[in-house]
Structures are given as structure tokens and as C-alpha cells.
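Researcher: Checking consistency across runs. Here is Glycerophosphodiester phosphodiesterase again:
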Amino acid sequence: MSLDHKPRKSWFKHKPLWILVAFLFFVTFTNSSYFAQKATGSPLLLAHRGMAQTFPMEGITDETCTAEQIYPPEHPYLENTIASMRAAFDAGADVVELDVQPTKDGQFAIFHDWTLGCRTNGKGVTRDFSLAELQKLDIGYKYTADGGKTFPFRGKGIGMMPSLSEVLQAFPDRSLLIHVKSNDPNEGQQLANYLSTLPTERLATLTVYGGDKPIEDLHKILPEMRVMSKATLKSCLIPYMAIGWTGYIPQACEQTQLHIPDQIAPWLWGWPNRFMERMERNQTRVVLVAGSGDFSRGFDSVEDLANVPAGFSGLIWTNRIDRIGPVIHAK
């Protein structure tokens, strides 16, 4: 009798260990990229504000006027202009990001700043002006790379601020990422009402991101549209990081867009291939941004590309499409 019970006692004695081993095997098998379909090809490219002038990222805040500290210009383009977007697409961008500001007369201007004084020869809050008034400004007036000794774009940006309508007409079949720069729910409603006049196939090429309130209101009116905000990111990634090891995909991760900093990405279950498989299966677009994701850091040099996983099939964010586009498309 005693001999018959010894194996059973041994099993019960080591049962917690076997359960742990089985659990670790399950988690590894479910989330390992080795068991996912191996991605091939090159990443897609998202050009931030088109072909833009760039600046040192160190020490900048939300109040920094970046136009006053640009690097010496290497190309003639100003951000958020039709010319800069066309140059970005020509350099290999798959998606161009642009900023919208509502105008006093109910339209949308393509411009980054809440106020006009940093970049232009105007003063005041951008949305307090009509589109016609904004389009008379010189949007390159304040750009300087030498502390104000010279202004290389002064006089070259007059009439260069486009409307959203003009951009959509200029690029009727290209993918665009529209950035709402406020947290005003009325802006989300206004943009949704404008976009709702577009054909379904055109809406499929557009994504909108921005403040929690405008994005929430926009999505109520256009539930089929791909959107992103801090709230939508959290509602997807927090539960995913909690239970994604099981292979379960939270509903908030479906038909959306995720901006994933490359410092955080390795902590996501199944990163990179298994995670990408799951998101693509749920029609969710993944954009990889550089560092911790602060202040729109991008993959802006050839050296930065070493941090992009081999075979990554999503979008990578760049502020220097002129540098990155030719490298990616040469592979």
C-alpha cells in the first residue's frame, strides 16, 4: 500500500511546479513571435506634418516656439502646406499627418499652433480669424536658425496656409492623419459634420486623432471612422497588458489606431509579430514612434531605424521623410 501511494505523493508534492511550467509554456507559445507568421517587407512611413523643418527636441515644452530654433534648412518646405505634403509623398510617405484649426467662418485651416505669433506675421488666436484672413499671412515669417539674425523663409510663406478642403482635393486618394489640436468637443462635432459629407471610400483613407473630448464626439457621429486619443489608447492597451497574454483582444483594440513608443513596445504581449498579427486581424493600425513618445519624436536618422523590429509591418513615425523614405524604399 505504501509503495502504491509514493508516486501519488510525489505528484502532489510537485504539482505547483508543473502548473507553473504549464502556465509558462502556454504564455510563451501564445505570445512568442517565433510562432507567429513571420513578417516580410518594409515598414510603412508616416510623415509628420509633411516635409517639415526640424529642431532640437531637448528641453522643449508645450510653450516652446520651435520656429525660433530650427536647424539650418536642408530643404525649402514648410510644414502643413500642400507643397510639403506632396514632397513627403514623393519621398515615400504612405501617410501624411496634418494639423487642423477651426476658423471663425466655420472652415478648417491647416496650421499647427493655437496662436499666430510664433510662426507668422500675425497675432492672436488662430480660431478667431476667418480662413481668408489666415490665408493672407506669411506662415514662414518667424522661422530662424541663428537666433533671429536671418529669417530664411520670410516672404516665402504668404498665402501658403491651406484649408482642409484644399488638401483633400489635392490628394483625393492618399492616406491622411488629421490632428485635432484642442480638447473642444464642438470641434469634434464640426469636423465630423464636415467629414460626413465625404464618400465612404474616402473616409476609409482618413484617420483622426487628438483630444479625448473632440474625438469622443466625432466618433459618436462617425462610428465607422478610425480614431485615436489618449482615452482610446488607454482603453485598449491597459486591458491588453493585463490579459493579452491569453490571446484575448479587448473590444477597444478593434478598428482603431495605436501610437506605440518603441521604449514601451517590448512590454506588449506578443511584440512584435504576434501583437501585429492580432491588431491587423482586428483592422487596427499600429504606428511606432520613437523613445517614450513625447513631443512627436520620430525615426529621423538611419541610426534610429535600428530600433525598428525586423519585418515590422506597421507605420513608423518620422519627422524627416526626406532622409528615411529613400533608405526604406531602397531595401
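Researcher: Does this match what you'd expect to see?
Model: One thing to look at in this run: The first strand starts at residue 44 and ends at 48.
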